[in-house]
Amino acid sequence: MELVKNIILTAFTSIIIENTIFSRALGTSTLILVAKSRKNLFGFGLSVTYITAIVSIITYFVGKIFDLNGDAYIYVPLVYIFILGSVYILTLLCLWRFAPPLFLKIRKYVHISAFNCAVLGAMFIISKYCVTFIDYLVHGIGIGLGFVLAVYMTAVVYDKIYSEKAPYAFRGYPLMMIYLGILGMAFWGFSGHMMNY
Amino acid sequence: MDKDRDIVKENSCKTIIYNAMLKKNPMLASGMVIAPVIMTVDSLPRALTLAASFSLITFFTLLISSFVPKSIVYTVRIIMYAFIGAMVYVPASIALEYFIPEQIERMGIFFPLLIINSFVIYRSESIFFLESKGKMMLDIFFCILGYDAAVLLYGIIREIIGSGTAWETIIGMPVIFSVFAEPFGGFLLLGIMAALLRVVLLTIKRVKQK
After folding, report:
1. E strands present in A117-193
2. Distances in Å between the alpha carbon of B182 and those of A141, B163, B165, B177, B204?
3. A186 inside domain
4. How far is B199 from chain A (nearest CA, A)?
5. How far apart, in Å, are the Cα atoms of B201 and each of A169, B23, B208?
6. A137: which residues sit within 8 A by CB, 6+ positions away?
7. Nearest chain A alpha carbon to B80
């Protein structure tokens, strides 16, 4: 029961309270690119969550085998890029061999879902704050899902943000930043901040 | 891709500079590398730290990556760019930690995350590597300069209105909007600054037409 409670709390924290976009702005550039098309949103979300989950598991074992603290910390990005690159290549190879139609469908955006700040940031965050294997896994999946939630919430209003009705100065990117800021403010409330009266 | 290539060929040096600094400013118009800006730049010293680390890592990563042969498939090329970024990070980290250790430590995970910034992953293939070497260097240089200028401006404004300080010294602002020091305030300020840039560009256009 305690384990289930911990899993739910960790998942809630990583998806909502510490949402990768609204609380850390990780992967905002990718979000701007991806929110354009609602057609590939599900596939993109699935591939980001899959990659964050797999790299979290590998990061856990790499952290157990190698000591990446002390002077070795400057080589951590090299190790993480090696892990990310390996997962990316192996996934594409498996899809190409066993599911060619899916491979053709996702190859356009799979590099965006693998090489972005949200995924690499997830590796840094979980290795810093997580201890147990379950923590790593749930946090990894949660960060992916949190990113997807943010992308979906942006894609929903994308047409309105780029609408001719919006003032020219704010149309598109400026309005998107303001929208993310307002959402960020709402999500910020989840972490229990109180106003000082 | 072909369309991009045609645009790139047509670009004169003057256009490259104007686009990089204003019209297509990487931070204020294109929304590139904004996570470290929103999360770490809340004062001028921190803006300078980000500008220095971003310039160092991005310039050398793109320079070395431009020698990666096009005959290698895109899937592998993209990993190679990220790997080159991680290798450039090692000496860059040593050098910056020697000169500004505290500021670099305060950047936290956003310092190593610069290795896979949008310049390296997206813009390299779609714009930079389609140009001739000379033009590419000029474009990269001015894009980085445009980004740095925007970061510094953002840092100054955020520090003054969010903390009431300048270079971390109290300047006695009558009103302080501390919300701008928070991440969501960072988004809001960036949105307002991007809109102001549009107004400036529109004014320039109207003046030219007159």
Report:
1. none
2. 26, 11, 16, 10, 33
3. yes
4. 6
5. 10, 7, 11
6. A53, A56, A57, A60
7. A85
Contacts of B94 in chain A (CB under 8 A): 74
The domain spans of chain B are: 2-209
Which are the contacts of A168, defined by CB distance < 8 A and separation ≥ 6? B198, B202
For tokens 């000496």, name the residue.
B91
CB contact under 8 A, B121 and A116: yes
Question: How far is it, in rounded angstroms, from Cα B114 to Cα B53?
Answer: 8
Nearest to residue B78, comparing CAs of B68, B63, B64?
B68
Asked if the structure places residue A101 within a domain, the reply is yes
Between A39 and A50, where is the model more confident? A50
Chain B residues in contact with A157 by the CB 8 A cut-off are none
Amino acid symbol at A34: V
Alpha-carbon dihedral of residues A146, A149, A150, A152, nearest 10 degrees? 160
Range(s) of the domain holding residue A110: 2-190
- Picking from A88, A111, A173, the nearest residue to B31 by CB comes out as A173
Instruction: Please name every residue paired with B165 in a beta bridge, in sequence order, or none if there are none.
Output: B170
For A92, the closest of B75, B185, B192 (CB atoms) is B75
B5, B127 contact by CB (below 8 A)? no
Of B184, B128, B112, the C-alpha closest to A25 is: B184
Q: Which of B34, B75, B89 sits opposite A28 (nearest CB)?
A: B34
Per-residue pLDDT of chain B (210 residues; tens, 9 = 90+): 445 554 555 567 888 888 888 999 999 999 999 999 999 999 999 999 999 999 999 999 999 999 999 899 888 999 999 999 999 999 999 999 999 999 999 999 999 999 999 889 888 888 888 888 888 999 999 999 999 999 999 999 999 999 999 988 888 888 899 899 999 999 999 999 999 999 999 999 999 898
Number of domains in chain A: 1
CA dihedral of residues A25, A118, A116, B156 (deg, nearest 10): 20
This complex has an ipTM of 0.91
pLDDT band at residue A129 using 50, 70 and 90 as cut-offs: confident
Residues of B in contact with A55 (CB under 8 A): none
Contact B191 A92 (CB under 8 A): no
C-alpha–C-alpha distance, residues B125 and A55, integer Å: 25
